[in-house]
Amino acid sequence: MTEHVSHTRDLPTMDELRAEAMEWARKPRRYGSWYVTQHMVSAMRAYGWTIIIGSIGQPVLYLLGLAAGLAALIQAPITAHGQDVSYLVFVAPALLVTAAISVASEEMTYPVMAGFKWRRYFYGFNASPLSSPQIANGVLVGAVARMFVTVAAYYLFIWLFGAVPAPATGWLTIFAGVAAGVAFGAPLMAYAASIEDDKGQFALVQRFVFMPMFLFSGTFYPLETLPVWLQWIGWISPLWHGAELGRVATFGADVAPLMIAVHVGYLLLLSAGGYLWARLIFTRRLAK
């Protein structure tokens, strides 16, 4: 009997177990966003070669086509913001921003749908001490990590091709590209999180949002050369705002300080609004 009582006393009490569980949960709650980010980045290894080819091969093909192809046909400089620049110098920042937005269109659609619908790993995360906002944070930060790598590689290539006349400030284009990617990707992530079933919605986004934005946002020619009834696409497009900031950085485009503030403010507004919307959708959906 004495031996049984001694053994019982050695067992932890419920309060001690609860305190230990809280201690184990404290670290995941503190660093939960980074754990989700680590998972999202690790999952990218499954299509790692696609990322590498997209980050390196796509810039080379685009720049070769423009530098050795189209730019050779367009001998006259393009006048942008009162400055005459070569066609390649004009187009390069917009292509860099497009690369970031392209990454956002990939990482903020099907991986989000997989987390809720196909593989349902978001529910597994949510069953742990991780919170719904931390899951949304991790998805976004993971996509930003891929954007940064892609855009940095793109910047290296446009610099090697001589499309950065002002390298002292040209590197800021990397951040302009990432900002535009987040401004496009955060609302898209919220939309993807709200979809219960994939019925071709993402294909519609590619055809009727991404492609018009790519073609009519001053990517290949100054926006003001378009008819007024088409210019509005550029005005609401994060691609145009990011490309304009990139042109200020790469060749010192003469953009008024007020317009620079408008470009930055618009990208921040889209990013913040989309992020808050995404957090709300993640919280509501994971609470079911």
- Kindly give the count of domains: 1
How many helices? The count is 13
Largest sheet: 2 strands, antiparallel
Spatial sequence of strands, sheet with the most strands? 1-2
Number of strands: 2
What general form does the structure show? Answer: elongated
Q: Enumerate the spans where pLDDT stays under 50 for 5 or more consecutive residues.
A: 4-8
Helicity level = over 70%
Order of helices and strands: HHHEEHHHHHHHHHH
Q: How much is the average pLDDT?
A: 86
Task: Walk me through what this model shows.
By secondary structure, the chain is mainly α. The protein has one domain. Helices cover 78% and strands 2% of the residues. Strands 1-2 form a two-stranded antiparallel ribbon. The longest helix has 30 residues. The termini are far apart. About 2% of the residues have low confidence.
Task: Provide keyphrases for this structure.
single chain, 288 residues
List the helices and strands and how they pair.
Layout: H1 2-10, H2 14-43, H3 48-73, E1 78-80, E2 83-85, H4 87-107, H5 110-118, H6 121-127, H7 132-160, H8 167-170, H9 172-194, H10 201-215, H11 228-235, H12 238-251, H13 257-286
Antiparallel strand pairs: 1-2
Helix pairs in contact: 2-7, 3-4, 3-7, 4-7, 4-9, 4-12, 7-9, 7-13, 9-12, 9-13, 12-13
